[in-house]
Amino acid sequence: MSTTTASEPIHVEDESHFEELIDTHPIVLVDYYADWCGPCKMLEPTVEEIADETDAAVLKVDIDELQEFASSKGIRSVPTLEFYHNGESVDRVIGVQDKDDLLDALDEITA
């Protein structure tokens, strides 16, 4: 697997895939979502733009597909966005977020 950052969100298949991606990419934004979630759909274009415009790897975790994993991560509502830096969770926000706020959060991680 290459360490180049994908320019589009990466669909997480299972927990080991998630761990591999977190370990591979220094900066990661994880979008926990559900297909039935209206706010998740509103957030999707923003998440796609961040994947395209930043060095962060953007992971998409379908909480219905990966229920046990989402539960183990303490995900109680969607959308939830979690930020990782060098394999460690450093921040988490819940609900639809403004793109600028997300970019600021990513900048803070790397500062």
Descriptive notes:
- It is found in: Cytoplasm.
- It comes from Halohasta litorea.
- The record marks 38-39 as: Contributes to redox potential value.
- This protein has 111 residues and is α/β, with parallel strands linked by helices.
- It is built from 4 helices and 5 strands, in the order βαβαβαββα.
- A 5-stranded mixed beta sheet has the order 1-3-2-4-5, with helices on both faces.
- β4 and β5 (88-94) form a beta hairpin.
What do we call the CATH homologous superfamily? Glutaredoxin
Count of DSSP strands = 5
The strand order across the widest sheet is 1-3-2-4-5
Tally of structural domains: 1
Please write the CATH class name: Alpha Beta
Uncertain stretches of 5 or more adjacent residues = none
CATH topology: Glutaredoxin
Family: Belongs to the thioredoxin family. Plant H-type subfamily.
Keywords: Cytoplasm, Disulfide bond, Redox-active center
Protein name: Thioredoxin
Pfam families: Thioredoxin
List keywords for this structure.
single chain, about 110 residues, alpha/beta, Glutaredoxin, five-stranded mixed β-sheet, 4 helices, 5 strands, about 40% helix, about 25% strand, globular, redox-active center, Thioredoxin, disulfide bond, Thioredoxin_domain, Thioredoxin-like_sf
